[in-house]
Amino acid sequence: MVDDVSPVYEVRYGWDRKTGWVVVGSVFFSVVLLLPGVPLFLRVLGLALFGGGGALMAYTAMSHKVAFRVDGTGVLLGGNAARYRATTVHVPWGDITGFVLWRQSTGVATLPYVGLVRREGAPALPGDGPKARAVVRRLVSVPEDVAFASRAVSGWRLDKERLVVAVAHFAPGIPVREHPSA
User: Fold this and answer.
1) In this structure, are residues 148 and 136 in contact, taking their beta carbons and an 8 Å threshold?
2) Strand ranges of the sheet holding 66-71, from the earlier edge strand across to the other edge
3) For 142-157, how does the pLDDT look when each residue is reduced to its tens digit (9 = 90+)?
């Protein structure tokens, strides 16, 4: 019997438990901010934060845009839904030397990331610059190059087994490893 499962690994933005709870919480706090007696400055700041943030998360989930894709041409790192075209980048296999699964501390929790190790001399990715590197260097536990070639696993689910199968199929010998802090 022939296996009909494609080796292409593609994940799209969508609804997950975390996104749902963030949107529900944002709606709740937005409604509370509209109650009488809430100071105007609090109302404006809170609605911008909770209303805007919740709306952006809902828009991202409903957009179903590609968040991450591994195929025969390389890897597509899907961008921010608000600026999808400007922040989405395709990295060809010739520029990739490895994958890194890592986590970023966000205070009380950690946020998983999938990143690429790229060859020396590979073209810069969007957002990469001296000022950004200075900030990133202090915030993340992975090299700056990996951080700029990473995407947060937020609004989509990473299937590590399917990722490993796709990488092995399209780029045998390129490792998928977990960063020690992951």
Assistant:
1) yes
2) 9-12, 66-71, 74-77, 89-92
3) 888 898 899 999 999 9
